[in-house]
Amino acid sequence: MKKLKNGWVEGSVQDFLELSDADMEFIETRRALARQVRTLRQERGLTQTALAARLKTSQSRVAKMEAADATVSIDLLLQTLFRLGMNRHQLAKAL
Amino acid sequence: MKKLKNGWVEGSVQDFLELSDADMEFIETRRALARQVRTLRQERGLTQTALAARLKTSQSRVAKMEAADATVSIDLLLQTLFRLGMNRHQLAKAL
DNA sequence: TGACTCCATGTCTGTTCTGACATAGTTTCC
DNA sequence: GGAAACTATGTCAGAACAGACATGGAGTCA
Predict the structure, then answer these.
(1) Measuring from the CA of residue A79 to each C1', which nucleotide is nearest?
(2) Gap from B4 CA to D19 C1', in Å?
């Protein structure tokens, strides 16, 4: 980590949080799936509230899904995507 | 569901258990990941016990992962695969 | 401005998953 | 056959997650 003249330091978030490569892959996977949820929802012209109703969950949970919140499992994201009509083949491409 | 002369009936497991297409995709995804765990473990010449030690978990959990047990989350399978050296690109192909 | 819609975020409670343990079954040697 | 190594399965306490609710911020429109 390299110190700069302005007081800031240089270095990756990964190093700072001491995340392994595996952790990074996992987090990036969640982020990719989260983006996909938002994309599919918007393609279908649904609000978070409308999607939540369809999934029998709450708007806040949909918001957290799309935000790739740490309290959202990949299981939840996948179930959501599949219920939005995605299949495994399309999923593979989204990764 | 069609009845046959021998007393058995014809019909898919999906219909019998009333699983939606989304459920099927989810379950099949878990099974694909489970197979991949076993493959990678064996490629590395590890026993379930040895892999469990590396993952800081128990042999029984590794067995359940590879069996695609319902109590095993996709999160756990993905974390395992990533720790076995897989990346998202390879993951996509395994689906 | 205020009313309205949509999305973001903190927190609570009940449910689900994880790791661990025990134990049983399987396979591979001698 | 029997021992040893490996894998499968049931159960449980504690950790993590889901859904719900409250609330706040940002944008739109009259």
Answers:
(1) D18
(2) 45
User: Domain with B30 in it: what CATH number?
Assistant: 1.10.260.40
Taking the CA of residue B36 and the nearest CA in chain A, the distance in Å comes to 15
Number of compact structural domains in chain B = 1
Cβ pair B72, B33 in contact under 8 A: no
Q: What is the pTM of this model?
A: 0.87
- Please tell me which residue of chain A has the smallest CA distance to B81: A22
Give tens-digit pLDDT for A20-40.
Answer: 899 999 999 999 999 999 999
Q: Which nucleotide is nearest to B69 (CA to C1')?
A: D9
Residue A8 lies in a domain: no
Q: How far is the CA of A64 from the C1' of D15 (A)?
A: 20
3-state secondary structure A15-42: HHCCCCHHHHHHHHHHHHHHHHHHHHHH
Say which amino acid occupies A28: E
The reply to whether A25 falls in a domain is yes
Q: Is the dihedral of CA B66, B72, B74, B75 positive or negative?
A: negative
